[in-house]
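Try it yourself: sequence plus zinc ion, in.
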Amino acid sequence: MNKKPIILGIESSCDETAASIITENEQGVPTILSNIVSSQVDIHKEFGGVVPELAARSHIEKIDLITKKALDESGVKIEDIDAIAATAGPGLIVCLSVGLSFGKAMASSLNKPFIAVNHLEGHALSPKLNSELNYPYLLLLISGGHTQFLSVQGLGNYKRLGTTIDDAVGEAFDKTAKLLGIEFPGGPQIEVYAKKGDPNKYLLPKPIFHKGGCNLSFAGLKTAVLKISKQIKTDQEKYDLAASFQKTIEEILYKKSKIAFEEFKKMNEIKKNKFVVAGGVAANKRIREVLTNLCEEEGFEAIFPPINLCGDNAAMIAMVGLEKFKLNQFSELDSPAKPRWPLDADAAFLKGAGVRL
Ligand code: KG4
Ligand code: ZN
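Structure, out:
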């Protein structure tokens, strides 16, 4: 019987310090042995957003403790780890450097292979931790910094079908929350407010709804929310605005996903098409429902990571590490942190004023 690989994953790209140990069972199914995430919400709350230097300092303070905890909880001895995988990008450079240096130092001292991981690839592969998922599949990545449709052809092989041309959807949730007076990070709270409101109270714009293929835009929506929020007086009006915002996002994601389905089908001829929705915003229950319904209508299988693996975590980084380990795809110890690291390096840069769709 061959020993199954044991991978340590480390994540510090933004405001979560995380470490995880994963392996696979006899059938080759990935198994999480520990998954420790330490959030810095309390540090950044008073500033209304992530302060990079404070985030980096906190990563430095916690990374060894969090890693030790992950080791202790997994019951794995440090010398039994087969490889160390750490997020190398994209993200805040001061934050990335902490986990990356720590991971390299561990790999070097233990004399084990080091694997530099793309954080977005971690999100992309996160459902493999609880579902059987073969390539190719369609991915909608919805997080605080990214909103993209990608055809995932294989490990490290991505074709971008669409992207936001301005804000990420998570950013739109967080900004709307801020305008409604909800404490940072407010995105998840919008869902709670929305349940108490009338989704048809405010008609909000859906930028590039009828053009641009499955590219998306949320900046105009944010501006409309800003205008309305200035006139709001009662709590009920806040709930109504949250509900109207949530509904608008659902409609945008439904329509754009439907277009992405067609583009994916043109690129890939497979029997059972799969649609993976990953990233922090994939924790939104209504978005899950709406996209699951769309999949039923269109003959796709909807796949979501479990809620606790939607946000940033190190199990998904270890998951990429596990796949790379099996293919002997190792990184040099001088591999750099990459604040910008698109999954599809060939895709055109589609951001800002003057973008033609
Ligand atoms: O993937 P993630 O943890 O970090 C990034 O890589 O960006 O995503 C964080 C984003 C935040 O914008 C947060 O507000 C949003 O995910 N988010 C949600 C929900 N839970 C987290 N947005 C809407 N509904 C939720 N339930
Ligand atoms: Zn993320």
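One thing you can check immediately is this: Residues 14, 143-145, 170, 173-174, 185, 187-188, 191, 279-281, 283-284, 311-312 surround KG4 (ligand 1) (CB under 6 Å).
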